[in-house]
Amino acid sequence: MARIPMPISKWWLQGAILTYLFGFTVLGILTYLTYAQQPPIPERVITPDGTTVFTGTDVLDGMNVFQRYGLMEYGTIYGHGAYLGPDFTADYLHRAATQLIDDRQKSGETAGVAREQVTEELHRNGYDAGARTLTWSQPRAEVHQQLIEHYQAFFANSRSEGGAQAEWITDPVKIQQLTAFFAWTAWTATANRPGKDYSFTNNWPPEPLAGNALTSQALIWSAASVIGLLGGLGLVLFFFGRYDWLGWTERRWPVKFREIHEVALTPGQRATLWFLLVASVLFLIQTMVGGLSAHYRAEPGSFFGFDMSRIMPYNVARTWHVQLAIFWVAASYLATGIFLAPIISGREPRGQAPLTIALLAAVAVVVFGSMAGEFLSVHGKLGTSWYWMGHQGWEYLDLGRFWQILLVIGLFFWVIILGRGLRPALNREGHGNLPWLLFYAALAIPAFYAVGLLTGHRQGFVVTDFWRFWVVHLWVEDFLELFTTVIVAYMFVLLGMVRAKTAIRVIYLDVILYSVGGVIGTMHHLYFSGAPAAHMALGATFSAMEVIPLLLLTLEAWAFMRSGERSMADAGHPHKWAVWFLVAVGFWNFFGAGVFGFLINLPVVSYYEIGTNLTANHGHTAMMGVYGMLAVGLLLFCLRYLMQEDKWSDKAAKISFWSLNIGLAWMAFANLFPVGMVQLHDALAKGYYHARSMEFITQRWVNVLEWVRLPGDALFIAGGVLPLIWLCLRAVRYPNSNRLAEGGEVPTQLFTVGPETEP
User: Fold this and answer.
1) pLDDT tens across 543-583, in order?
2) How many CB atoms lie under 10 A from the CB of residue 571?
3) Which of 83, 183, 367, 371 is the most buried (most CB within 10 A)?
């Protein structure tokens, strides 16, 4: 039987393929450059008389200490990680430079001469590639020994201070190794690349005492990215204003939605209810530990006077907060895919329900097993199994490698379940049509999450961070965005709000425009992480283009809504609040991912703000504003059919909508953005080290802004999350009684076709 051809030109599909080929070809070249030009880890760091200061093994062992105790979920390295503790690269560098200058002044040198000589010493590379040794002066080696004592006192402190747990790391050998790791990152931050006048990190962090200043490349590529953005916006807006490529001007007739009691549910669809309940509970836990993490900034080390670090240290709370954000959003996506599959195909294969429950059980094992492992690892309880069963130590990839592998397998298992459900539609539709686009988008989720398995605990931080950002950016910001667009477009087609060919055009537009900037734009995370300057040039230029599809798709989302506004105005619209959550996705996509993202992506800005609240502001408004709001919208869409019609509460959905959006806006505009701007000013005025210090956080007026966040967080949790759990529990208690037996025929439209309804 011939497949149904694409209702639009095949140039859209070919354009999408070519765009991906171009983007990943460039990424392949940048991958080679990352490996070839990464900062070397010397076998030994020695003094002029041959005395060993520390070894390359110490550096890698120190990186492992950094991982197993979850330090990246307390502070940062190269500006990447959590925001309560210091940036350990900047911290070590500032302390070392300060002490070296003080020692020279004590020996009789003037302040100016001392600073010049220290700057010259720090920027002198000193690495002998043939002997694989790095030579440091005797004074620098002595300062390193003093810093070992400093970090020993900090991590072995018998009291909890500044959010760091008491007696965190007490083994002197581990402290020596950890300090060696900090020292190596500080060396890469100042030592000039061979043949260059800037360091391996493009002179990051900004540290006047070490002679680190903004490079000319950062200025040039910032200007180029702004010019490219303005030119690209002008061209795209002109063409899409001049030509109606997506077909919004096509006349649409009002649709009449099927009554809830008329929609019979398959066994697999009914099983997704438990997925949604688990997702809502994980959402609650995630927001509670997130609120606790935020409270540590208002009251470091305690919770209204109670020492929480002994029960729930900041790094554990933040680890769970980040990981659960992925888990609960993914759970909602998985459930929705399984729920929609029989509607798309018109039939559900036998066995979908037990497979769905098995998947849910597997997800639960991964979620709670990894959370337990992370808790035990940071308390030093797992011994040599920390990497596999505990805390890998990389933000967004914190879960132990064993749990990570299980999660990848579980996601591929979901694709198999989804593929079984979509098989009839896949067999009859062309390979560029909606069912296949949904399958491709679903397959990309485990495929690109699996890239995180290329990280390793003995291959060096720079390469590991490169692969980590394939997950953070390509998986989260590109392929989850693709799945978002596909699932929303498909929902509107199933509801009769747009034509299939219009939805397909929107999806291909998303693929092409996002891929133009998003794939290569991944490198904007790596300006100052030891990657070559080429990453800055391409990352800055292409990441600026990411704003173009965000703006355009926001305008198209508005047209999307206008196309169905007659039915939306109907008081009987069954998915009013689910669709409003999709509207919120468009809003936060533009502001959170677009405006706040572009604000920090320019190298000239990122140089001073990376790792400050402006980064957190972008992360929260993009992650929760886009993927979180979509996950809630999908949850409400499915619940509407899973629950008895008379037990549904629009009021609960309305309260959740406004509480989540007002709470997120409060979080952003009353706390994260203003504190981030103040931090940016502080980094310019007093240095990056100070902007990331506890001294900055505990300033009275900054502390007031941290406390101001509390009402927004309380509204977000109590008014936003709890109603969702209540609705899920209502659906469990009052399930839709219209059941369809296995193998039964499923209606492929959720709207009725009347004499005035356009098919």
Assistant:
1) 777 767 666 656 655 555 555 444 444 445 788 888 889 88
2) 6
3) 183
Residue holding tokens 């991906």? Answer: 20
Confidence at residue 754, expressed as pLDDT on a 0 to 100 scale:
46
Of 274, 355, 358, the C-alpha closest to 731 is: 274
Is residue 214 classed exposed, middle or buried when 0-12, 13-18 and 19+ CB atoms within 10 A define those classes? middle
Domains 44-201 and 219-734 share a fold: no
CATH of domain 44-201: 1.10.760
Q: 557, 583 in Cβ contact below 8 A? A: yes
> Residue 722: pLDDT above 80?
yes
Q: Which of 133-137, 414-418, 497-501, 693-697 has the lowest mean pLDDT?
A: 497-501
The count of other CB atoms within 10 Å of the CB of residue 369 is 16
Round to whole Å and give the CA distance between 728 and 308.
31
Of 203, 218, 176, the C-alpha closest to 90 is: 203
Give the separation between CA 260 and CA 640, rounded to whole angstroms.
Answer: 7
Stretch (H or E) spanning 618: helix 613-622
**What's the pLDDT tens digit per position in 679-718?**
999 999 999 999 999 999 999 989 999 999 999 999 999 9
Q: What gap in Å lies between CA 596 and CA 621, rounded to an integer?
A: 8
- Helices 613-622 & 650-667 angle (0-180, nearest 10): 160
Q: Where are the domains of the chain?
A: 44-201, 219-734
Residues above pLDDT 70, as percent of the chain:
92
Distance CA 88, CA 450 (A): 29
With contact defined as beta carbons under 8 Å apart, do 373 and 382 qualify?
A: yes
Rg of the chain on CA atoms, in Å: 27
Q: Give residue-wise pLDDT tens across range 20-45.
A: 899 999 999 999 999 999 999 999 99
Displacement of CA 605 from its chain's centroid (Å): 20
Yes or no: say if 471 and 451 are a contact pair by the CB < 8 Å rule: yes
Q: Are 255 and 496 in contact (CB under 8 A)?
A: yes
**Are residues 100 and 143 in contact, defined by beta-carbon separation less than 8 angstroms?**
yes
CB contact at 8 A, 486 and 441: yes
- CA–CA gap between residue 147 and residue 153 (Å, rounded): 10
What are the residues facing 44 on neighbouring strands? 55, 133
Q: How far apart, in whole angstroms, are the C-alpha atoms of residue 464 and residue 395?
A: 11
Label the pairing between strands 44-46 and 133-135. parallel
What pLDDT does 251 receive?
46
Q: Residue 288 pLDDT > 60, yes or no?
A: yes
CB distance 637 to 575 below 8 Å? yes
State the pLDDT confidence band at 475, using cuts at 50, 70 and 90.
Answer: confident
pLDDT at 591: 85
Mean pLDDT to the nearest integer, 596-623: 92
Biggest alpha carbon–alpha carbon distance for the chain: 96
173: Cβ contacts below 8 Å, ≥ 6 apart: none
Q: Are 171 and 148 in contact (CB under 8 A)?
A: no
pLDDT confidence of residue 189:
97
Q: Is the pLDDT of residue 156 over 50?
A: yes
Q: What is the pLDDT of residue 755?
A: 43
Residue-wise over 597-630: b if at least 16 C-beta within 10 A, else e?
A: bbbbbbbbbbbbbbbbbbbbbbbbbbbbbbbbbb
- The DSSP code for 261 is G
Give me the CATH topology for the region 219-734.
Answer: Cytochrome C Oxidase; Chain A (1.20.210)
Q: 322 vs 61, 367, 623, 755, CA distance in Å?
A: 25, 12, 10, 51
